[in-house]
Write a structure and sequence with these properties.
The chain is built from 15 helices and eleven strands. By secondary structure, the protein is of the alpha/beta class. The protein binds glutamine.
Length: 488
Amino acid sequence: MTKLTDLTVAGALDGLAKGSFSARELTQAHLAAMAAARHLNAYITETPEKALSMAEASDQRRRAGKAGAMDGIPLAIKDLFCTDGVLTTAGSHILDGFKPTYESTVSTNLWKAGAVMLGKANLDEFAMGSSNMTSYHGHVANPWKRKGDPSVLVPGGSSGGSAASVAARIAMAATGTDTGGSIRQPAAFCGIVGIKPTYGRCSRWGIVAFASSLDQAGPMTRSVEDAAIMLGAMAGYDPKDSTSVDMPVPDFRAALTGDIRGMKIGIPKEYRVDGMSAEIEKLWAQGADWLKAAGAIPVEISLPHTKYALPTYYIIAPAEASSNLARYDGVRFGLRVPADTLDEMYELTRAAGFGAEVKRRILIGTYVLSAGYYDAYYLRAQRLRSLIARDFTEAFKQVDVILTPATPTAAFAEGENSDDPVAMYLNDVFTVTVNLAGLPGISVPAALSAEGLPLGLQLIGKAFDEATLLKAGQMLEKAANFTARPGM
Ligand code: GLN
């Protein structure tokens, strides 16, 4: 029999429905696997007691014939989602000891669907990073290694703990958030599926804010079908988030018809960037061929403002972050460094509580918003953002989805990019445009590199058309038949 931790969400739901095993057994198997994989540091907080009591409640519901869409499925929750009574750190020292008295809407939705919480997954501090190396709670190790090379690789970021836990089978699936690529890039680095839904599809309420106009929550799973199931459970209108959109949530799983005949696949010529590995370039062409073989029609398109995407993102995201992070003042929650005056207390608390990357972003953000520089940087970035979004609007007049690589390289070793913030920011070159335009994007594991590391392909969809995205993503998944597993 397949090990319980190897099952997909769909497979586990099947087994639970048939009574082949209980939610309690499924959860216990994951808790044991978590204990054996602590070297990955994928979790900041494990919640075994909560997990077991949630699993037992799930078994009871199933016996009563009241099982929900994800009943009994054990999940890791990125530690950016507020969880009632459970430590929520955002990967930062400044939130030391913070136990929210409320639950985020997305996690509430998942618990309503019957899912079980295994713990809170590690992440880059305030979701700022591409390597999970900025977490106050330590680096996360990618369960994958290069062939014949013991170096520890990064899992990507910022949802690095989520991606590593799903790849390592110490969570059946996980929540992530994506501001500039933080679901799709770690998914690609760890060989799993990650989808960033359309902005407004999932509520941001109760998620620690990084850049409010870009942040979106989404599922990280081991199959496209699982992503469809979990997105259905997470999504939905929430009056508590004014940017949440009141639109029906389609049955994403039912959309996986396997028929993409006649679908038009855009291939943006501007995505051939410097620094992209030859392997990824080849995989990208292979991806287009796979979709073509399934009956889709590749079409060359142009997204001319792509070259401005990174500078635009790295002005807008820090600007919003500098404002969002002003609330951490040592007064209401988290760390406080006592001092003689209030101002001094603020300064000492923020100096001690924030890490270097977060401080860098606050400095950049404050600078681009300050009088005299606002017009030169922030306003121009906003204009570029509109142009980037307009490129997509034009492209989507011709095509149904857009195919790009997910990342310019495979996972790198700790330290390989970390002394140069600009090199690190380049990781997001294929993903940030999608956030700037508010569109949905999915990363699907598509091949192993010559060094034996997972490589991902990205599909970008029209606003609120995750269904088509998932359908096309599943065709990539089928063609790629990615069955390799990490050595851990
Ligand atoms: N790597 C990007 C950044 O550091 C994206 C992070 C994210 O999506 N949360 O800002």
